[in-house]
Amino acid sequence: MHGFDSMNPILSKNKNIQDIAKLIYDPLVTLTADYKAEPALATEWAKQSDHSYLIKLRENVKWTQGQRFTAEDVRFTIDRLKEISSIYSYHVQYVTEVEIVDDYTVKIKLDREIPFYEYFLTFPILSKDYYENEDFVNTEKNTSPTGTGKYKISEVQPSYLKLEKNSGWWNKKENLTIEKITVNLYSSIGELYNSFKIGNIDLISTSNDNLQEYIGTIGYSSKEMKGRDHTFLAFNMQNSLLSRLEVRKAISYSIDKENIVSSVFHNKCFTSSFPLDYGSWLGQGQEASSGYNLEQAKQILMDQGWNYYSGTWQKVENYRTQKLFFNVLVRASDTSKVAVANNIKQQLEAQGIGINITQATDEQYNNSINQRNYDMALCSMTLSPSPNLTTYLGEGNIANYKNEEVMNIMNEVKNTTDENRLKEKYARLSEIYRTDMPYISLYNNRHIVAYNSGLVGDINPNWFYPFYGIEGWYK
Asked: Could you give phi then psi for residue 403, rounded to 5 degrees?
């Protein structure tokens, strides 16, 4: 691990610390390997109204120093997250009150409706007795914290941390075969990678696209998965030409995503077709391709009266000649996105669809997106584990897309917990997304977990948690 700062997981800015902390601390709600919410310190939850959730807490849970876990710890953690700048602060930014109903029941009140708010309850819970007052920011004390998780810290040294199995962990169903874990601390990324190469480290989790350049290709196994950074092309549906389905389809069928991934990213990304196809249980079974087919693109336009003339598609309507020509908005500061925009421009212009790339400053880009002042925009979004698609398909979405059936489905899914019903409705949302094409999902970044051959077991990581299946691992 590189860049140790604090073992207080809500103070640390280090992704590795946050991953390790999930072995030491429990959240209210955790996620399965396919990103489904499941109970942890909360045993159940219920949406009482659009603005409130009732949460039942697990009883008979103790912190490693012996105190009981209670509702006071939940309120304390949320209050602290609202006071500080933490990677987890956005999880509670809309919380107005945490009401303690009894020792094992809390009511969380929000200032607005947040669909699937249970997916935001994945932040680590801290002990009020241990962390309150000035001790909360006491770095020395924070190196040996108390938690409720499957492991606890047994030793802290400048160059390593040692964890041992928490024999008092509440989850008796999981029988941990690895009794002890050593977390090595390194002063540089190069030192970390060298240590992995010589076998001093068993597992590393990273989004570094150039990992093989540092550790080679032999002597270890790895699992690659879609990361949470999703890049897509947004159509402004208020544009008179882009409001036409045949135009959006022609553009979509003219873009070869595989070409983008290979030419711009040297195959270090994954093509995507839907925001949830990164492995979410509600986005599985989706094909990454939107149907790249140049002949089909041409046929769609011809069927709607478009003619290819002098290198561009044209159509005469009301005595006016319209040509397929659009501006694509992109952040000038994001060189990889500029390269993607140029790749798209080259592909579309080869098909007779004119493109001008508008490279905007960050401020100009944000203003144009907020004001919906663009034809097409190359956008990226860091996805939440929540399956909420409001940003893409809900009211006020960035494409100005409106569909009555979609709105009805969105209203239905936010109020149901029936898993079969949710799968059915999300399959329909995906179908509409790919049929109406208000966006073209392009690609996701790549996340990698590499592990040495001496580590055996069902290693099934994702970008939320690299240690799925750890209860069955052994060396």
From this structure: -150, 120
